[in-house]
Amino acid sequence: MSKPKVIITRRWPEAAEARAKDLFDAVLNEHDQPMTKEELQEAMRTAEAVCPTVSDNISAEVLGAEPLKCRILGNFGVGFNHIDIDAAKDRDIVVTNTPDVLTDCTADIAMTLMLMVARRAGEGERHVRSRQWTGWRPTHMMGTKVTGKTLGLIGMGRIARAMAHKAHHGFGMKIIFCDPYPPPPEIIRNLDARPRDSIEEVLQEADFVSLHCPGGKETYHLINEDRFALMKRGAFIINSARGDVIDTKALIAALKNGRIAGAGLDVYEGEPKVHEELLAMENVVLFPHLGSASLETRIAMGMRAIDNVQAYFEGKEPRDRVV
Ligand code: DGY
Asked: Which of 154, 231, 257, 283 has the lowest tally of Cβ within 10 angstroms?
């Protein structure tokens, strides 16, 4: 039996690409250049499966390609707001993602951002590297203590819970959260986490706010000028979710007028572009969407995407089907 043709839109770690080549008639993106709209449309016309990733725009136009051959999108990544899900449903295309395997690494990045921005680590590193450091002194580069403070989580899914675990059990932080679909009571108990009825309550109470909601229409600019105005003076915001959950202009204003003390960002509106004003701010830690970027996790993500596509072609229900 001939192997199904599977187009993988970007380079994957070697082990995952090798397995894809073994199982499928896999077409790899050797040069790792983002595929254009036209190339993605051609992929829809020529392959039974396409494995896109979070930086590909799988729009209704891409999914509208005719004649359509693609039956499944085996996304490499947990977030799928870059895929027009309604269009995929209309075209009867199965969509899968890669949850679980990136939970810890993404929570680690959120923790890193929180610690770095609170303790001025990025600024300190730049200070040393630019040879400005003149030596230890009691008032030099004082930051904010993290241990014992209140961490407010917007969204309490897998990554938020992993962050809560690290922050509570490792740093003695008090955890508050808001999620319309809260975790089971035993998980909340183990984290000694306190639910709040609204995002507003979390913002008013937290010393550090970390965003863990999905991207998309429902959460677009969830954190806007009015909500920044509710945050405690001296509080910090951490975003490892999706860039457009925060209104960038409102963030810049809140940082400039001192409403908040700093921000740790792994994701951006319109990334990979980053707003010039953010680039110039010392109290902002900026990462290039590193959430899941460990070798172990990226291999596991590739394997999980392959598992889903393989299951589909074997006539089984893919484990991580979202549509
Ligand atoms: C995802 O999987 O959605 C992440 O953003 C990639 O790190």
From this structure: 257
| Identity of residue 31 | H
Phi, psi of 46 (to 5 degrees): -115, -15
Rounded to the nearest 10 degrees, the angle between the axes of helix 103-118 and helix 295-313 is 150
Alpha carbons 106 and 300: distance in angstroms, whole number: 13
| Residues at CB less than 6 angstroms from ligand 1 | 54, 77-79, 102, 291-292
Tens of pLDDT, residues 235-288 = 999 999 999 999 999 999 999 999 999 999 999 999 999 999 999 999 999 999
Mean pLDDT of the chain: 98
d(CA 234, CA 20): 49
Residue 118 CA from chain centroid, whole number? 21
Q: 291 CA distance to ligand 1 centroid (A)?
A: 7
d(CA 292, ligand 1 centre) in Å: 6
